[in-house]
Amino acid sequence: MRPNFENTAIAFELKSDSQLERAYFLFKLISKEPLVRIGTAVTNFAIKAHLPVEGLIRATVFDHFCGGVNEKDCLPIIDNMYGNGVYSILDYSAEGKSVDNQFDFAMEKTLEILDFVKEKDAMPFAVFKPTGFGRFKLFEKVSQGSELSEDEQAEWGRLVNRFDRVCQKAHQLDVALLIDAEESWMQDAADNLVLDMMRKYNKEKAIVYNTFQMYRWDRMGYIVKLHEMAKEEGFKIGAKVVRGAYMEKENDRAEEKGYESPICKNKRLTDENFDAAIDYMMEHLEDFSIFSGTHNEKSTLKLVDLMEKRGIESNDGRIWFGQLFGMSDHITYNLAAQGYNAVKYVPYGPVRDVMPYLIRRAEENTSVAGQTSRELALIEKERKRRKLED
Ligand SMILES: Cc1cc2nc3c(=O)[nH]c(=O)nc-3n(C[C@H](O)[C@H](O)[C@H](O)COP(=O)(O)OP(=O)(O)OC[C@H]3O[C@@H](n4cnc5c(N)ncnc54)[C@H](O)[C@@H]3O)c2cc1C
User: Fold this and answer.
1) Beta strands in the chain (DSSP E)
2) Residues 6+ apart with CB under 8 A from 275
3) Is the pTM of this model over 0.90?
4) 239 lines ligand 1 (CB under 6 A)
5) Nearest to 74 by CA among 322, 352, 348, 354
6) Which residues pair with 239 in a beta bridge?
């Protein structure tokens, strides 16, 4: 059955009254764009200056958008959500690292999580970010085809090895592994690496998933090209389809450096591109597994309808719907209530390391980005239903 996204009783069933009030307060606050701009600047400064702001961050944005500072913190949340049919993806979200031992640490974390995923039915995927395993600048250099020094070549070798170790383990354990996508000027190197991993480990089914950011106008062409390679060489494609989280940065850089922005000219074109990717993959489901990572209700219902039209079971293992923890519960929980594979990304990590992630979420939820009004309206509706209004 088609999920009903208006059902706030299902959407917020796991939230206590006080958690609902915190969400209301938080979304009201971050709907104000100037406040978010000032807030993020002040917070960044306070963290760098080692001012004691971590407690404040924890009590507000952190606890709403993150599962905790370590895996143990996240476990009760994971179990709780699974009780309502919602799966979890533990996402170690420490960002902006730049030295080898930190990359090794992130790799070890991912290897550990793969073991966890194998054991826990509530966790269907592991995930990592390319720049969690290696330096951004190095990805950038390789993407540009620049020559690497001897040291850099060795560094790149270690990076490739990290990718290979986690993908190999995922394959051995038969556990699916998502790889996030980042800024376009480092992404070619990551795409080529993930392609190699798919060639190696996706022979029988999709174990390794790359991410396709459909705000990039070149992505549809890339998907079709990748599909041709997959058919010819005999591997499956794991595809996380998203719109993309770095739009402003992408447009600013393109303008500053004077090249054509890789981002679609407007939101409608991004939406059409997202739809086109889902249509294409659904038409070739023999070669694709789809992870639709979106908070967009229309995109979600479109995929639900396509499944229905093609007679695909709601819990078919090749199709997943993902939202971020702390956002769009009305989509996740109502999908799960109808038996769809609905999953939350649950970010975790030390507060200061998770800040770039939190700032992206705050920015994405300003009134300008437009998502908050919907989130707020639903929270207000549920407050009314629970008679919590002041
Ligand atoms: C489970 C999950 C995993 C994710 N993983 C990644 C990842 O690996 N990499 C990544 O980059 N992002 C990732 N994201 C974030 C995602 O890319 C979006 O930023 C976020 O989900 C908002 O898009 P939407 O489809 O949910 O909603 P919508 O509100 O429908 O769309 C907002 C998005 O549309 C695009 N957009 C807005 N205005 C314009 C415009 N004027 N012109 C062109 N495009 C426009 C932007 O991409 C913007 O983020 C993930 C999201 C989820 C839920």
Assistant:
1) 87-92, 125-128, 176-179, 208-213, 237-242, 288-293, 319-324, 342-348
2) 299, 302
3) yes
4) no
5) 348
6) 210, 290
Are residues 260 and 216 in contact, defined by beta-carbon separation less than 8 angstroms?
no
Does ligand 1 have an atom closer than 6 angstroms to the CB of 230? no
Helix (H) or strand (E) holding 29: helix 17-30
Closest atom of ligand 1 to 211 CA is 8
Q: What is the pLDDT of residues 206-217, one digit of tens each?
A: 999 999 999 999
**Looking at ligand 1, which atom is closest to the CA of residue 327?**
53
Ligand 1 and 304: CB distance under 6 A: no
- The per-residue pLDDT for range 33-81, each reduced to its tens digit, is 776 777 777 777 777 778 777 888 888 889 999 999 999 999 999 999 9
With residue 17 as reference, give the H or E element that holds it: helix 17-30
State how far the Cα of 373 lies from the Cα of 368, in Å rounded to an integer. Answer: 10
Q: How many CB atoms lie within 10 A of CB 384?
A: 11
Task: Give the separation between CA 235 and CA 199, rounded to whole angstroms.
Answer: 6
Choosing from 216, 243, 327 the residue with most ligand 1 atoms within 8 A of its CB, the one to mutate for a pocket test is 243
Cα–Cα distance for residue pair 96/347, rounded to 1 Å: 15
- Closest ligand 1 atom to residue 322 Cα is 1
Our mutation pick for probing the ligand 1 site, out of 214, 217, 242, counting the most ligand atoms within 8 A of Cβ, is: 242
